[in-house]
Predict the 3D structure of the following.
Amino acid sequence: MQQACYYSPAERQQEKERQRASDADDLRSGRISRDEMRARNGFFSSLDIVESSIICEEAFA
């Protein structure tokens, strides 16, 4: 198992941005479907955010 000697938030952010761009390109080109992308990216990607909504009730007792 590879161990990290340090953690760089800036490097991690760049890595995430590269992966998002790659994912978007894969979707746009048809190399992968949205369902395949969700399965590949794990738990949080399985949440169907497009069809979701948030309801906020203003009344507090």
